[in-house]
Known about the structure:
By secondary structure, the chain is of the alpha/beta class. It folds into three domains: 6-284, 2-enoyl-CoA Hydratase, Chain A, domain 1, CATH 3.90.226; 320-496, NAD(P)-binding Rossmann-like Domain (Rossmann fold, 3-Layer(aba) Sandwich), CATH 3.40.50; 504-648 and 680-710, N-(1-d-carboxylethyl)-l-norvaline Dehydrogenase, domain 2 (Orthogonal Bundle), CATH 1.10.1040. It contains 29 helices and 19 strands. The strands form four sheets. The protein has an eight-stranded mixed sheet with strand order 12-11-10-13-14-15-16-17, with helices on both faces. Strands 1-2-3-4-6-9 form a six-stranded mixed sheet, sandwiched between helices. It has a three-stranded mixed sheet with strand order 5-7-8. Helix 18 links the parallel strand 14 (428-431) and strand 15 (451-456). It starts with 5 loop residues before the first strand and ends in a 21-residue tail after the last helix. It binds 1,4-dihydronicotinamide adenine dinucleotide. 1,4-dihydronicotinamide adenine dinucleotide binds at residues 324-330, 347-349, 353, 404-407, 411, 415, 432-434, 455-456, 458. It catalyses: a (3S)-3-hydroxyacyl-CoA + NAD(+) = a 3-oxoacyl-CoA + NADH + H(+). This is 3-hydroxyacyl-CoA dehydrogenase, NAD-binding protein. Pathway: Lipid metabolism; fatty acid beta-oxidation; Lipid metabolism; butanoate metabolism.
Amino acid sequence: MTDNTIDWSEDRGVVTLTIADPGQSVNTMNAAFAASFDVALARLAAIGDALTGVVITSGKKTFFAGGDLRDLLEVDADNAAQFTAFLESIKRQLRTLETLGVPVVAAINGSALGGGLELALACHHRIALDDPHIRIGLPEVTLGLLPGAGGVVRTVRLLGLDTALDRVLLPGTAYRPADALQLGLIDDIATDTAALRAAARAWILAHRDARQCWDDGDAVPGGRADDPSVATTLPTRAATLRARHHGAPMPAAAAILSAAVESTVVDVETALAVETRYFVQLATGQIAKNIIQGTFFDRQTVRSGASRPRGFMPPHRADSVAVLGAGMMGAGIALSAALAGITVKLKDVDCPRAERGKAYAARVLAKRVAAGKHSQAEADAILERICATDDVADLAGCDLVIEAVFEDPELKGQVFREVLDAVAPDALLASNTSTLPITGLARSVDRPADFIGLHFFSPVERMDLVEIVVGEQTSEATLAKAFDIVLQLGKTPIVVGDGRGFFTSRVILARLLEAAAMLGEGIAPASIEQASLQAGYPVGTLALLDELTLTLPHKIYGQFRDEARTTDAQFVEHPGDAVLATMIEDANRPGRSAGAGFYDYADGRRVRLWAGLNERFGPGRPGHDLSELIDRLLIAEALETARCLESGLLRSTADANVGSLLGIGFPLWTGGAAQFIAGYPGGLAAFGARSRQLAEEFGPRFTPPASLVSWPTEPVGVN
Ligand code: NAI
């Protein structure tokens, strides 16, 4: 017996089915729902002529959440047939619902994302509560999937191929009710629950012979894919999609396009079967599993505090923060804190500089007001929280200090000493240093146990990740506090040790140097950029080097070299660094900020790859293939991640995945740098073998660490 998940009530011929899974906080398309839905549908059919209509609504905060992602991770080739049968049974139920012969209305009283909207699409009319927290859409593509419960078929038949693909299925946008209404995803909006109920009943009484448009002639708005006017656009559509993804793996988008197009040239039943086939292909594939693991489960693990020390409850909250340094990072940190409701004292050496930092916040807020994200009054209140100052006395009582002055250990020590007497005696002391060891910086204060690294990413108000760096003397209580503060800021904290470059800088350095090394081998720079994009990185690696400025990785690598030489007798120089040195010292092209790097720039805009690269580093090494370049970039970063896990610098694979996805643009399809190894085609042995092959050809930097033999195929955490 499964628990009933659907409550039944009847009022003068109109039956309301209220979905409320007693076993979970949200309604999902699980076995209990399927069983309850079967019972409800049979009972509806048995009423016969006395049935006037049906309202579907939810007894939970959200309307309906869709498929259970845990179930999806378990789907593989062995149980695909069973999974397909389950999906088909749900689809049959939804078809039964929409062909009952009476009007069915979805009264959407909470978010309807994914399966929730698919259920609503199988109703004849959709009315949503006008609540700013409600979201409506089909976000499956963002998890490497497609809407497999009729979402592709029904949106295409409802809105036409272009709108369904470009506004709903391919972007996966979660719309507010008013926007969903404008788009045609829903039909009406109600101001409150009573109005929602009344509107649903009124619609039923006024539309006794309601039918789905696809059961009424089956025309597709805008035309079927075999209409000549549509058919001629399809090759461009496919090419545009490929171009948008730069050739990186994107099975979900490709499957959505195919399923949508094919669905238009067959009847509804066949279309639903086509959709199922594509869905099962994606669900049994590795890429959807990677993305679900990295972006959903690992993110949940990280945010739920797997790397936060136990205890130290209740969670800490900061009231007022002293941000030292109002430059690029300080200004962004100040804005993020103000957005989270924290009072900010933004201090710089003089008032004009401090005000410049606050002006940055004002500019970003103005843009947000223009985009409708805040009202003017909200933006004013947020800005009001930031006080720009050059006076230490203004920092009195702050319970958090975040330092973001120049990257100079002496200066950083000095600014902490300056403010210690003014701020609260137990204020958390944090540095946003990107490269300096936290343990060393902590020595400049008299309470190093309260000192920690909070490494933000630029632009701070848009980047979700914060790397929390634990120094040798940082206490567990301080780590717990810092973790809570990062969550309070609305960001995602990963916890890392105090090794050189921490986690993210160290891993990205491996990719930057690898790309530079390729250039040194004479590989065409355009091929390196193409390999980067085809691997799934957001920008070419040489372009990224220019953005960061070549001197930065060159300097960090120098620090690694100095450190390694004292401990590692076998130290082998990375050939990429010599290329950076040539670019900086001989060619005087350190990057975009100087107007010249691997690329030429005009008015700050990237124009083309520098023609001199060929002369300096060419002629091209013949016979290289792009897949080898792709492997080198990805594997270089994955191996560095494995070393971070082996050394304990990282505490969990979840931190590794979330950090690499959010912080350094590791390709989404991999699920993160650790999941890339766990999900490598052919398994760990194949990953190890490929690494060793690369090591033979390119050097010991590709030798896999010993721990890879026992690498976890399941996620590992600390607690
Ligand atoms: P920036 O040069 O834009 O700003 C530094 C600010 O500190 C300047 O406004 C300067 O006037 C101020 N300052 C200098 N001495 C001061 C003092 N005694 N008291 C108060 N303010 C003082 O530098 P940016 O880029 O904001 O970097 C700041 C820190 O953040 C550095 O440690 C950097 O390594 C780190 N970081 C930078 C990232 C980036 O993408 N730029 C990313 C993550 C960390």
